[in-house]
TrEMBL record:
The keyword Transport applies. InterPro entries: Cyt_b/b6_C (IPR005798), Cyt_b/b6_C_sf (IPR036150), Cyt_b/b6_N (IPR005797), Cytb/b6-like_sf (IPR027387), Cytochrome_b_N_euk/bac (IPR048259), Di-haem_cyt_TM (IPR016174). Pfam families: Cytochrom_B_C, Cytochrome_B. It comes from Steinernema carpocapsae (Entomopathogenic nematode). Belongs to the cytochrome b family. It is found in: Mitochondrion inner membrane. This is Cytochrome b. GO terms for biological process: mitochondrial electron transport, ubiquinol to cytochrome c. Residues 205-368 form the Cytochrome b/b6 C-terminal region profile domain. The keyword rRNA-binding does not apply. The gene is CYTB. GO terms for cellular component: mitochondrial inner membrane. GO terms for molecular function: metal ion binding; oxidoreductase activity; quinol-cytochrome-c reductase activity. Component of the ubiquinol-cytochrome c reductase complex (complex III or cytochrome b-c1 complex) that is part of the mitochondrial respiratory chain. The b-c1 complex mediates electron transfer from ubiquinol to cytochrome c. Contributes to the generation of a proton gradient across the mitochondrial membrane that is then used for ATP synthesis.
């Protein structure tokens, strides 16, 4: 049994046939694996001192920062580690669009599933601070589930463990926040198995074991470049620990007074802008959900055009630009012209996705 395990491990990280054309863009995936393990380790340490109680939660975070030996370092590294994870998650995702990685259907589907669970995990971690912004963000986001037909209000009441967000809700989120990363770790293992069974998409789209090199030592050396990124991350976190946060996160939650302007973390802003762009609550929630779920539909299309195709690059670049603009609009006040621009760019967001889905048919139509 032990021999079989080491053989399996050897096939994953030692003798795995790898394309010669993989560049540093493929470091995004390995960096994500490192950050995930880092987040689990720092989060486990924080869980030892955190109190999942509505009265003590905010104070316990302050206790970790000021009283626990090196607690401040674990807290700021965990806090900024979430942003680091999403930076590379989006880079990894955009790289997949550039190289039409959705042709590897199991890899793509498992990756989108990981994306959804990581977003859920990050949201629950955001709530655990029990500050003004995170408390009211939890009220807004959990209330969206009430649009589910028939069972919606009951699901919201079940999550809240009552008729409002309370200490029981906080415990529910804490338990899930602790357990979900282990499930994500299992999903990542399946993601790697699917990836290594087909091979990565590369600039030459070579899937056979011919004209390839072993994963070790070449790609171990390439992944070692991640150490420079870690060095930059530690320096950035120590010099600017809370630059990615909101001032309202330093104020304890007050159920009787909401912030003037509720803004989620930066990695949720594009979806938040889409939600706010639609006045109808049901359609807004549906658009919010489809902003990620729509990428599951990519597995039904096999766009075997060249991965260096200029048209594909053009639309992916436009999609990235639109996503960035939506993220900026998500933190703007709910007033003209930001509301109008949110509607325009939300439409463009889904339009470009539609074009990317049918780009192969479009190419045949244009160039035939």
């Amino acid at each position: 049994m032990l021999k079989g395990f080491f053989g399996f491990l050897n096939s994953l990280v030692i003798n795995l046939p790898s394309s010669k054309t993989l560049t540093l863009y493929w470091n995004f995936g390995s960096m994500l694996g490192m950050v995930l393990v880092f987040q689990i380790l720092t989060g486990t340490f924080l869980a030892m001192y955190y109190s999942a109680d509505s009265i003590l939660a905010f104070s316990s975070v302050q206790y970790i920062m000021y009283e626990v030996n090196f607690g401040w370092s674990f807290r700021i590294f965990h806090f900024n580690g979430a942003s680091l994870f999403f930076v590379f998650l989006y880079l990894h995702f955009f790289k997949g669009l550039f190289f039409s990685s959705y042709r590897l259907k199991n890899v793509w589907a498992s990756g989108i599933t990981i994306f959804l669970f990581v977003m859920m995990e990050a949201f629950m971690g955001y709530v655990l601070v029990w500050a003004q912004m995170s408390f009211w963000a939890s009220v807004v986001i959990t209330s969206l589930l009430s649009v589910i037909p028939v069972w919606g209000p009951s699901i919201v009441t079940w999550i809240w463990s009552g008729f409002s967000v309370s200490g029981a809700t906080l415990k529910f989120f804490f338990v899930l926040h602790f357990l979900v990363p282990w499930f994500v770790l299992v999903l990542v293992l399946f993601h790697l198995i699917f990836l290594h069974s087909t091979g990565s998409t590369s600039t030459v789209y070579c899937h056979g074991d011919y004209d390839k090199i072993c994963f070790f030592p070449e790609y171990w050396g390439k992944d070692a470049y991640n150490l420079f990124l870690w060095l930059f991350f530690f320096i950035f976190s120590l010099c600017y620990p809370f630059i990615m946060g909101d001032p309202e996160m330093f104020i304890e939650a007050d159920p009787m007074m909401s912030p003037v302007h509720i803004v989620p973390e930066w990695y949720f802003l594009f979806a938040y802008a889409i939600l706010r762009a639609i006045p109808n609550k049901i359609l807004g929630v549906l658009a919010l959900l489809m902003s990620i779920v729509v990428f599951y539909f990519f597995i039904f299309f096999s766009n075997y055009h060249s991965v260096l195709d200029i048209l594909n690059k053009f639309f992916v670049f436009n999609f990235i630009l639109i996503s960035i603009i939506l993220s900026w609009l998500g933190q703007c006040m709910v007033e003209y012209p930001f509301t109008f621009l949110s509607i325009v760019f939300s439409i463009l967001y889904f339009f470009v996705i539609f074009i990317l889905l049918f780009i192969y048919i479009l190419e045949i139509f244009i160039f035939s």
